[in-house]
Amino acid sequence: MPPATPDLISPRSARVSAARRLAKRNFRGKDRLFLAEGPQAVREAAAHRTGGAPTLVELFTTPEAAERYADIIGGARDAGAHVHLAAEEVIAEISTTVTPQGLVGVCRFLDTPFDAVLAARPRLVAVLAHVRDPGNAGTVLRCADAAGADAVVLTDASVDLYNPKAVRASVGSLFHLPVAVGVPVEQAVAGLKEAGVRILAADGAGEHDLDDELDHGTMGGPTAWVFGNEAWGLPEETRALADAVVRVPIHGQAESLNLATAAAVCLYASARAQRAAGGCRCVTPG
After folding, report:
1. pTM of the predicted model, to two decimals?
2. Confidence of residue 40 (pLDDT cuts 50, 70, 90)
3. How many helices (H) and strands (E) does the chain have?
4. Of 114, 115, 112, 96, whose CA–CA distance to 104 is shortest?
5. Alpha helix stretches (DSSP H) within 95-235
6. Residue 8 burial by Cβ neighbours in a 10 Å radius (0-12, 13-18, 19+)
7. Could you point out which of 3, 44, 60, 122 has its C-alpha 20 to 30 Å from the C-alpha of 111?
8. CA–CA separation, 198 vs 257, rounded Å?
9. Which residues pair with 126 in a beta bridge?
10. For the chain, what is the largest distance between any 2 Cα atoms, rounded to a whole number of angstroms?
């Protein structure tokens, strides 16, 4: 049986234009909506709620994708999203990728107030202090999710959380853990310290070695890792806010690690130390 005929065929329609403009930050901020592309992101968006309301409000899908991902389409409809069967030309107009996967969702903003992050008494936090590349931001968010972090904080000097590239790079992790945005780094550090969280700045020139920190047993308590710009690291004034500036040791001949790799190493080191100190943080049954 052939796929259904699309009911939205004009890339110039008002509905398509409204979705397309969400590729730009000023319109995202005005509408408090963003785009999530691909089956994984749309699946997670359909299952997520923001302030009690469904996060996914609208879904554009080609008939072929609707047939291939029938479970996702069903989940979107169950969440109350308006599902449009759209022509490939429409999806191409809305999508920000070179090769669209046939699913583009329109979602409500879902960031969490910083005060709510602190009120939850987090034990592991990633703070993106000067991260300007959206791909790096999304990948660090994914690493934080995988390591079992309790929250991510993007400071006011970092990239927009809802940049389409950042959303794609998070591969759905954006919908899994609280993310606070637009927090000045000084406020982020002061608030976390007051909540009893130790602040570690990740920097290749740090005075403290990650292996030594693990060997000395200093990483079992609540910890926030502060990550900076991949090209020029953390400014001195940000380093000075931390309780310690820690480097990931390079045992081979590599010049350095990229931001996402270093973040994964640091976050997993803390997660392991915290499990050893206070029981397993794993969310997987068994």
Report:
1. 0.90
2. very high
3. 13, 13
4. 96
5. 114-119, 134-146, 164-170, 185-194, 210-215
6. middle
7. 60
8. 23
9. 152, 225
10. 65
